[in-house]
Design brief:
By secondary structure, this protein is mainly α. The protein is built from 22 helices and 2 strands. The protein folds into 2 domains: 461 residues, no CATH class; 36 residues.
């Protein structure tokens, strides 16, 4: 296997495979910067171009190289403008954009890019070493376990709620209600559509995220009449500080990367869920919880690393069992069949070189895009010092292009404006927005798995694996409170003795 691993590397860096990799990385770089277009839509557009590429490794250098870097460049607009380039980059807005407003855009970008590379490497290596051991782990989780994992994600609403847990829970509840809009997937009945054909297919995440997070920040920028960064510096600094932050908090980056791999392996969940779970995990570890949402670099490192590591996790069930874990992997599965590959145990035996080549594609693509980003980083960070009146038209253009290209539907722009209005008042009255997004995202998933569990299993709540996951969920929620009370008791004990 080691010999095949090395052969896979040489096949990726050989011509013409490396040329296709550079083309894919270039396309992915610009796609990640444009909100709403996304890696999945671009992969669908680029798939026909792979028909004429005879060599499987060259074809995947192009397709997988493009998909691998969209998350990294999507982080850039989240940090600089508060507009997620990718749906899986939304969590970086919470602390990344405040860092830009504090004049620390360079540090936030340095941290995001470096943690993304580390996450991509961990995800790729997880793919390489997990092939022999992943099958029993994947088969262990059925619908009941996946439902409990979704509930585990919803319990993090308390962590993301900020100062007011009640407001956080209510915002999360509103998100769960919004997730119920559309056609009931089990009965086919309509729920909360109010006669609108647009709502039949449920609310899309991109218009909601862009509206909630981007519109209020643009309004705030217009009202302030200044640049995004309120603290002007002589020259842009802090990039290397962000790189150092990645290694100062390396165990946090490692844990969040493994969270990304884990959620990538599980069907349907993927990067959109992994980023919020990783952000909540990073925030839970803060000694001073008030730093969350105010520019804590840990809030950038967590979702930044998880976002990219999910690509490696996504590929594990796709290659090992021919079961795509996400829409992007379903398209890649189709590409494999087009070029004559049969995913599953047979591919791992006869075409192991292609499997290891994919590991190298993930690593090399992310190293290339990181090098490019660092070269132009000062120019990117300088955008935060441009006067707001010059930036606002460009930001509005990004918002509406991002909303429209999500589904090529003008109703998405209307939805963005509505949620922008809601987001503005949530900010004004101190209501947290992340719980609403988490409720919307996990509500659909939890409902589907609950229905399957109830219909296909008996007393599934008594399954040992379900009971273990429930215990982990309870412990995760209770641990910060227990730790805080123990610390308070330890602090008060010397006074009692006196």
């Amino acid at each position: 296997m080691l010999e095949t691993f090395i052969i896979g590397f040489w096949k990726v860096v050989a011509w013409p495979a490396f040329g296709y990799l550079l083309i894919g990385v270039t396309v992915g770089f610009f796609v990640g910067l444009l909100p709403g277009l996304g890696g999945l839509a671009t992969l669908a557009l680029m798939l026909p171009f792979s028909y004429n590429i005879k060599d499987p490794i060259s074809a995947f250098c192009f397709l997988l190289g493009m998909l691998a870097v969209t998350g990294t460049t999507g982080d850039l607009t989240s940090i600089l403008f508060g507009i997620p380039g990718e749906g899986s980059s939304a969590a970086l807005i919470l602390d990344g954009y405040p860092m830009s407003k504090n004049g620390e855009a360079g540090r936030a970008l340095g941290a995001a890019i470096t943690s993304s590379v580390v996450g991509a490497i961990i995800g790729a290596l997880s793919l390489a070493i997990s092939i022999p051991i992943m099958r029993p782990l994947v088969l262990l989780f059925g619908s009941p376990e996946l439902f409990i994992i979704a509930i585990m994600g919803i319990t993090f609403i308390g962590t993301l709620a900020g100062a007011s847990l009640i407001k956080g829970l209510l915002a999360g509840g509103i998100g769960l209600m919004l997730a119920a809009i559309g056609v009931d997937p089990q009965t086919g009945s309509l729920r909360y559509t109010f006669g609108s054909l647009y709502l039949w297919d449920r609310l899309d995440l991109i218009p909601v995220v862009v509206g909630l997070f981007a519109i209020p920040e643009i309004v705030d920028l217009a009202v302030r009449g200044t640049s995004i960064a309120s603290k002007k510096s002589e020259k842009l600094t802090g990039v290397m500080e962000g790189v150092k932050d990645t290694f100062r908090h390396f165990w946090l980056v490692m844990r969040c990367s493994l969270i990304g791999v884990y959620f990538g392996v599980l069907p349907v969940l993927g990067a959109n869920i992994a980023q919020w779970i990783s952000y909540a995990h990073a925030v839970q570890g803060l000694k001073d919880k008030s730093r969350a949402g105010q520019g804590a670099v840990e809030g950038v490192l967590g979702p930044g690393s998880a976002n990219n590591s999910t690509r490696g996790g996504d590929l594990i069930p796709t290659l090992a069992f021919g079961i795509p874990g996400s829409g992007a992997m379903a398209l890649l599965l189709g590409a494999m069949l087009i070029v004559g590959l049969n995913p599953g145990p047979e591919m791992l035996k006869s075409r192991l070189d292609v499997t290891f080549a994919m590991v190298w594609i993930l690593i090399i693509a992310n190293l290339i895009v990181a090098a490019v980003c660092f070269l132009i980083l000062n120019h990117l960070a300088a955008l935060t010092f441009i006067r707001g009146s010059l930036l606002i038209p460009f930001l509005l253009f990004l918002v509406f292009i991002g909303s429209f290209t999500a589904n090529n539907d003008l109703n998405d722009i209307i939805a963005t404006l509505i949620f922008g209005f809601i987001g503005y008042f949530m900010v004004k009255f101190g209501w947290p927005r992340p719980p609403l997004i988490l409720g919307l995202t996990l509500g659909k998933i939890a409902e589907n798995y609950l229905w399957i569990s109830t219909a296909a299993y008996g007393a599934w709540l008594l399954f040992p694996s379900v009971l273990i996951l429930i215990a982990i969920t309870v412990f995760t929620v209770a641990y910060p409170t227990i730790k805080e009370r123990m610390g308070r008791a330890k602090y008060e004990r010397p006074e009692d003795a006196m």
